[in-house]
Amino acid sequence: MSGTITDVPGIRVGHAEDTNAWTGCTVVIAEDAAVCGVDVRGSAPGTRETDLLDPVNLVSHVHAICLSGGSAYGLDAASGVMAYLEEQGIGLDVGFGVVPIVPAAVLFDLSIGNPKVRPTRDMGYAAASLASKEPVAQGNVGAGAGATVGKLNGFSQAMKSGIGSASRVLPNGLVIGALVAVNAVGHVKDPDSGEILAGPRDEEGGIVDSLELMQQHAFNLIPPGTNTTIGVVASNAVLTKAEAKKIAQMAHNGLARTIWPIHTMYDGDTLFAMGTGQVKASIDLIGTLSAEVLAEAVVRAVRTAQPAGGLPACSSMQRTE
User: Which Pfam families does the entry mention (predicted)?
Assistant: First the structure.
């Protein structure tokens, strides 16, 4: 087992990125399609095909999920994923060919690297074509290439973040995995130790508690359009769309345990939940563990990130005991 989301049977992941412009996209492919739900908690989302995932709507299975940088421009990457899947004959059979179902969500990374370079159709195609069962690369790759955290003191005092993944295998054969690109306005902490791993910095370069900053100012410190954490939790469970949506809702608890603040007016925090349909299990169990695994993936996203765009990362900060 790799300890990443590709441990889930039927799930493959591919990244593509531009490390000169610091942007990229990540594709999660369900080899035999997957039941999917979504829960959007941020108030400034950039999404595609999420209405389709409402339990009252017709189509119950998706073929891939696309996570992308580039703000709303990055939604174009999903078209490339569709093109790749169509070439493989993968999609909803409509009688005149196939239509791949590829929901997508984007994060804002225009403040790092080159804002005129965004994930394109070609980048989405490349990420889909590279999708594999190998352990997921983490840090400054894919949708995490331009991810940052800690923007409450201005972007120049922020820190580099990235994309992270984790998994959990139960004795009954249930496998739960998570993948998340962490692009938070505030700080990220280790939920076990309470240590702030990355966040806004002061003039001396030390990390500042986001809540303390917010309490010191009567006005809103959150820069509009600079945030959003997006991710996928997946399992090999048998799910309905309604159950998948509930799991996505519960998984957001993993963000709340690690990111402060979360789900603000200027975030588009969005989580997808996928089920590949091999194991029957309690929805409460799956949702609870999805939150735990997602929290672990958030921590990994920050710990594996490397300095970029003039910003330090958790891995580069000197710490004293």
Answer: Peptidase_S58
